[in-house]
Amino acid sequence: MKNLIHLFLIAFALYACGGGSTSSETDSTTAQPETTASEPESVPAVAELSISGDDAMKFNKTELKVKEGQTVKLTLSHSGKLPKAAMGHNFVLLVQGANMADFGMAAMGAVDTDYIPADQADNIIAHTKLVGGGESDTIEFEAPAKGTYDFLCSFPGHSALMKGKFIVE
Ligand code: CO
After folding, report:
1. From the CA of 106, how far away is ligand 1's center (Å)?
2. 71 CA distance to ligand 1 centroid (A)?
3. I need a surface site. Which of 74, 76, 82, 152 has the fewest CB within 10 A?
């Protein structure tokens, strides 16, 4: 009889022990997932950009971004088939404050220079040559000061659709 009680106590002790192990398994101090952000990224010296125009009189981008101090290497390509006489495209980056409408008017008369008007030189930061279907042109220039600039295609009538913002951060 005494042995039986003894056995019961042991059994109870084992049960209590097993039942008591429900704590501290859902510990919330697990390691944080590693974040890949917040490392100071080094700015590459050269920003390579590409933009293309098509036969529907459109650029494939309306915004381009670079960092201040970068050398910009920009490639304009023409993804269409039409010749430049009919559907020519260029990329012209204007200084801040330049009047796009005035520039467009001046460009229209500059047939001999592929619609880059000589009297608007002061308003141009950089420009490519005029390209037709399948052609491309790459230019390099220093990014201007931080700010937002207009770019456009100066082929007559195109800047209504072919324009965008060039942002220097
Ligand atoms: Co164009």
Report:
1. 15
2. 24
3. 82
Alpha carbon distance 43, 127 (integer Å): 24
Cα within 13 Å of Cα(53), Cβ side: 34
Number of H helices, E strands in the chain: 3, 8
Res. 39: pLDDT tops 90: no
CA of 163 relative to ligand 1 center, distance in Å: 9
How many angstroms is it from 152 CA to the middle of ligand 1? 8
Owner of token pair 């230019």:
139
**Closest listed residue to residue 115, CA positions, set 141, 90, 135:** 90
Over residues 106-145, the pLDDT tens digits come to 999 999 999 999 999 999 999 999 999 999 999 999 999 9
CATH number for the domain running over 46-168? 2.60.40.420
The pLDDT of residue 6 is above 70? no
